[in-house]
Amino acid sequence: MNIADLTLEETSTKLKNKEISSIEVTEEYLGRMETYRGLNAYITETPELAMEQAKKADTNIANGKAGKLEGIPLAIKDLFCTKNVKTTAASKILGNFIPPYESTVSQKLLDAGAVMLGKTNLDEFAMGSANTTSGFGNVISPWKKNDGSNQDLTPGGSSGGSAAAVAAKLCLGATGTDTGGSIRQPASFCGIVGIKPTYGRCSRWGVVAFASSLDQAGIFAENVKDTAILLEASSGFDPKDSTSADIPVPDFAAAMNGDIRGMKIGIPKEYRVDNMPEEIEKLWQQGIDWLKSAGAEIVDVSLPHTKYALPTYYIIAPAEASSNLARYDGVRYGLRTEQDALLDMYETSRAAGFGDEVKRRIMVGTYVLSAGYYDAYYIKAQQVRRLIRQDFIDAFKKCDVLLTPATPSAAFAIGENEDDPIKMYLNDVFTVSLNLAGLPGMSVPAGLDANGLPLGLQIIGKAWDEETLFKVGGVIEQAAGFTSKAYK
Ligand code: GLN
After folding, report:
1. What pTM was estimated for this model as a whole?
2. Which of 122, 179, 310 to mutate to test the pocket of ligand 1 (most atoms within 8 A of CB)?
3. Which of 12, 21, 22, 158 is catalytic?
4. Under a CB-based contact definition with an 8 Å cutoff, are residues 136 and 142 in contact?
């Protein structure tokens, strides 16, 4: 038996049956992290801490005190603060930041017995779609095209390190955050499952803020069931986050009973975007056929304001980012450049600490919030946001979930799309509207393109109805029989 071939659920069973130990499992993953260090999936590896936690997990198992994730090695996106472990947000400005506290989500995972292997790479402050804006180098996808070119591909972004780590089996699951698609797009590019739950399902406490009204924590894993197990452990009310909802957390894995007979699946016609590759169109139709043959009913729905989602997002997200990032001034923490005058110190610290994409967002954000333009841009965007949300409310009167492609293309080469930020932003065309509406969405690997690269389908649910996402996700996963793996 090869430990890395086991799923999270299988590993957990074998740990509890004492067929393997957490020390063995953790050593296996730490070894793989070393072998595949070239992918640059982790910014910080924490092998000593991991071995300590694994030892404790084995003791807990021996004493019959195993938590739900006892002994399971996970990776944490380096946007979640981890107590006494460097947390950078992939920015030079936080290059030496060691938080004195633990984020709620990572604490919940640790409380369930998980082992932390390290902190994964991301786009700087989670701004990007290719993991190329990281201050600590880009992440390389473990996938290659089947044309023998050996070209390095992007794992997607911003949670590219987490997605690459799961796809390369450098952990059994990982946390991510999704402000406009940062879980679903990299999950799709890497052939794994990723869920962004409903806004308010997971606490944002201790997560470095990008755009607070859109940011949501979520999960990556190899398959739907493992994702369900991890999301359940990460979810729940947190009095420390005023946007966290006091709503019971269901047993997500139990919802996967495969029975979708009579369920209504909405197909939004506005997601047939111009120049969509035929392969994506075909995959979408394939998904529709799978659900139909499992007994679901297909209904056409309309989300008429879809075309405004990207422009609306790229006003609101930078506006909130410019405000959130104002705290990095070199005074209390983070990078400081020494200067005689205070203003000079602010300016040179921020100039040295932030990368180009972050600066671009601060400029756009400051502009749309400035006195002369606030009504024309920011207020207008908030109004359109309301209409986008209303579209979903209306659509869900006719159906239980929506099915769409997750991304407009498969993974592209590193460096591609870099010259044109707008082209990069177009990656989020199918994902951002959910963040604007606060709804849950999941990407499930459903097939390969002509180059042998994974493509995902996105399932969009009603607020607080992640259970239906898992149910439908399980059916797609089974029908797709997606067995292609990036790892050996
Ligand atoms: N790609 C989008 C952006 O650059 C979304 C990022 C995210 O979800 N964190 O803003």
Report:
1. 0.98
2. 179
3. 158
4. no
Tell how strand 73-77 and strand 115-120 pair up.
Answer: parallel
Taking only the tens of pLDDT, the chain with its 488 residues reads: 899 999 999 999 999 999 999 999 999 999 999 999 999 999 999 999 999 999 999 999 999 999 999 999 999 999 999 999 999 999 999 999 999 999 999 999 999 999 999 999 999 999 999 999 999 999 999 999 999 989 999 999 999 999 999 999 999 999 999 999 999 999 999 999 999 999 999 999 999 999 999 999 999 999 999 999 999 999 999 999 999 999 999 999 999 999 999 999 999 999 998 888 899 999 999 999 999 999 999 999 999 999 999 999 999 999 999 999 999 999 988 999 999 999 999 999 999 999 999 999 999 999 999 999 999 999 999 999 999 999 999 999 999 999 999 999 999 999 998 888 888 888 899 999 999 999 999 999 999 999 999 999 999 999 999 999 999 999 999 999 998 888 86
Task: Give, using CA atoms, the residue closest to atom 10 of ligand 1.
Answer: 127
In the annotation, is 91 catalytic? no
Give residue 215 CA to ligand 1 midpoint distance, Å.
9
307 is catalytic: no
Q: Respond yes or no on whether the N-terminal peptide bond of residue 203 is cis (omega within 30° of 0).
A: no
- CA 324 to ligand 1 center in whole angstroms: 15
The preferred substitution site among 182, 183, 199, 458 for testing ligand 1, maximizing ligand atoms within 8 Å of CB, is: 182
Count the neighbouring beta carbons within 10 Å of the beta carbon of residue 286. Answer: 17
218 bridge partner residues: 176
Using CB atoms within 10 Å of the CB of residue 67, give its burial: 0 to 12 exposed, 13 to 18 middle, 19+ buried: middle
Q: Which stretches does DSSP call E strand in 97-144?
A: 115-120
The ligand 1 site (C-beta within 6 Å) comprises: 126-129, 158, 178-182, 210, 317, 428
